Amino acid sequence: MRKFFLLSPVLLLLFGFTAGHVVDAKLNSLLLQFKTSEEAAKSDIFHAVTGPSYFIPNVKTLKDLSAQDRVSIIQLMGKNIKEYLASKEFLEKYNQYREDKKPAAPEAPKYSAQLKDEHRENLKKFIAEIERSKSQVANDQQAMFDDVIKGLHQQLKEIDDPKNTLYTPEMDSYIKQSYDMQMNEYAKSVAAWENTYPGNNPNPMIKIWLTTFLEKSAGINFDAKTTEIKPGTIKFIDQEYERKDSQWKLYFRAGKETVTAARTFAQDWLGEIK
Question: Engineering a disulfide at 242: which of 156, 221, 236, 268 sits with its beta carbon 3.0 to 4.6 angstroms away?
Answer without folding.
Answer: 236
